[in-house]
Each structure stands twice: as C-alpha cells, then as structure tokens.
Design a protein that fits this description.
single chain, alpha/beta, two-stranded antiparallel ribbon, 9 helices
C-alpha cells in the first residue's frame, strides 16, 4: 500500500463520520481523525481549481470545522449537542450543513445556526465560524468565553481569532493563536497543536 493511500483511507473514514448521528460515534472517530491530521500534508486540498484532488478546499475546511470540537475543552461541560454557528455564509458553511442533515436520519449531535452579531454567539454557540467575506468587514474579533472562533480569512489571528484555516503548499492547515484561545477560557488538545502550523509561521495573515 502506498504512503499516499494510507492518509486518504483515513480521510475517507473521517468524511463518513459526518453522517453518524450520535456524539459517541463522533468521539469514536477520534483516532482516525488524529491520524488524518498528522498526515494532513498529503490530503489533496489543492486551492487550484484545476486540481485533480479528491476533496475541494471547502470540503476539507468543513471537515476541520466539524471535528475541532473534539479537541477543545470548554470552561464548562459542553452540551450533548455541539452548536456550530456561522456569522455569514459561504460554501464551507453550506457543506457543513449538508453533511450533517442530508442523510436520513440526520446528525442529531450537532446543529448549525446562522447569527448576525457576536452577542448572539455567547449563549448559542460552541464553535463560531466567520467566513472570509464577513471577516473583511470586521476590525476585531472578541474572545468570548466558551466560544471557539474559526475562519479562513487572512489576518484572522491578528484580529483576535483563535483558529485560522490556511492554504499552505496547496493544502489546508490550521494556525492557532493560543493567547486568544486562553482568553476565551478554552484549552486546545496537544494532539491538535502538534499538527497545527508552528508559531513562527503564524504571524500575520500569511506565512513568514
């Protein structure tokens, strides 16, 4: 079996978990997620529209977004149903919604809700995704207690965001601002930190 096939095999398993209805099932897939993330340089999330990759960038972003909740410790025990929120909408948001609800029965361990301001996020969201188009209109991102903020927009971390999904060598990788995460009273698992971009590569909205 080729080295390139192994991570793709686990990625297929990870993608399949989108349609599993229970929180327990999501937790059972932790092992395959870790392996997938460790091999993430091999995941063909090419930003070139002419790429022959199996997964498009927004599909990989949706996978990351969905499973980040398994690698975060909240200040209080998270509810059985993880509440994902989106401040605006894009293809990644739509992909996440479709993955959760297009099958019968739909995934009941998570919800996806659109919100219009940060005040709504405090009491209604565990994970808040901010699309790039929305981020361009914002000067700063508040660190809300118990809310993990994620975006694929540039300079998200500098504006106060927690996890930025970046295209690196035609692949999607997470960059994490630990200081911002701490201000939100959240803790990121060391397993996720190990596959994130090194701190020296997180400055600004592009690699340095």
């Amino acid at each position: 079996m080729s080295s390139g096939f192994i991570p793709m095999l686990y990625h297929n398993q990870l993608a399949a978990t989108f349609n599993r209805p229970s929180l327990i099932a999501r937790q059972l897939c932790l092992g395959c997620l870790v392996i997938t993330l460790y091999f993430s340089p091999y995941i063909q999330a090419d930003t070139n529209t002419q790429s022959n990759s199996r997964y498009s960038p927004h599909e990989v972003k949706a996978l990351y977004l969905y499973h980040f909740a398994n690698f975060v410790r909240w200040p209080e025990s998270p509810p059985e149903r993880i509440r994902y929120c989106s401040l605006g909408s894009d293809t990644t948001t739509l992909t996440l919604k479709q993955a959760l609800f297009r099958k019968t029965p739909p995934n009941r361990s998570a919800t996806v809700t659109s919100i219009t301001n940060f005040n709504q996020a405090s009491d209604n969201c565990e994970v808040l995704y901010i699309p790039q188009d929305t981020l361009q209109k914002l000067k700063s991102i508040p660190q809300l207690t118990g809310v993990l903020t994620v975006s694929d927009g540039k300079r998200f971390l500098q504006r106060g965001g927690m996890i930025e999904l970046r295209a690196v060598n035609n692949r999607i990788k997470p960059a994490i601002a630990i200081d911002n995460v701490t201000k939100g009273e959240l803790t990121i698992s060391s397993r996720l930190l190990r596959i994130a971009l090194p701190p020296t590569r997180q400055k600004g909205g592009a690699l340095e």
